Amino acid sequence: MSKTQVPLTTGVTGTLPVANGGTALTSGFNNGLWVKLGETNITSATGNVEFTSITSTYKTHVAIISRLESSNGDVKFKCQMRDSSDNGYETSSYAYATRTYHNGSASTSGQSTSDDAIQLMGGSEGMGDGSHPYGTSCIVYMCDFMDSGHPPSVFGNGTYSKESGFNATCYFGGTYRDTSIQMNGIKFFFNSGDIEQGNFRFYGIGGDA
Question: Any idea where the domains of the chain sit in the sequence?
């Protein structure tokens, strides 16, 4: 039996079902996959980690941070955004809020309406002891960094420790209050000391309108 081949770009109308290898969409398909844009693996003392490849291709970027260890004890993990007009990091006008719950049956919070950075982890008690690689990790979503009509923001959650037997989980969110500035990068750092080790993976999320 002879077979007739039909070109999908010109000879098919409507949608091709998923069961038959299609997308069930007629056009504009983007499956929302995370596209890896970079990775930094810290194995010795480093002051900060930067990701400077934020573009308008993606409205949402994500950083997955694992194996994070600080050189000092009782520190706060923070971030700043990079102004695309001069590639300098903004050091004011950040607003944020955090909430932490730990296994000492207590909770702490941190907040500011105008600070020099956004606090991500550490609560009010701080994290790390400066000498042990406790299990510390977090995920940070970065939204609208290159949108001049909306303020750029970050949000996420993580877990950290500061001593044997102590564990905390935290939620955080923050923004830069000036909507007229586009940001093309982000910098992660501790408020005191260095990043002793840590793995930082950066992604762009496809399909974000």
Answer: 38-205
| Cβ count within 10 A of residue 11 | 9
Which of the following CATH numbers is that of domain 38-205: 2.60.120, 1.10.357, 2.40.30, 3.90.550? 2.60.120
Nearest to 68 by CA among 186, 170, 199: 199
Whether this model's pTM surpasses 0.70: yes
d(Cα 169, Cα 104) in Å, to the nearest integer?
12
Instruction: Please check whether residue 197 is in contact with residue 67, taking contact to mean a CB–CB distance below 8 angstroms.
Output: yes
Paired tokens of 95: 């607003």
Write out the chain's pLDDT in tens, 209 residues.
Answer: 555 555 544 554 555 555 555 544 444 445 568 999 999 999 999 999 999 999 999 999 999 999 999 999 999 999 999 999 999 999 999 999 999 998 877 888 889 999 999 999 998 888 888 887 777 999 999 999 999 888 999 999 999 988 877 889 999 999 999 888 999 999 999 999 999 999 999 999 987 66
3-state class (DSSP) for residue 19: helix
CA distances to 7, 77, 130 from 135, rounded to whole Å, are 53, 14, 13
Query: 47 to each of 15, 42, 90, 137, 163, how far by Cα in Å?
Result: 52, 10, 17, 18, 23
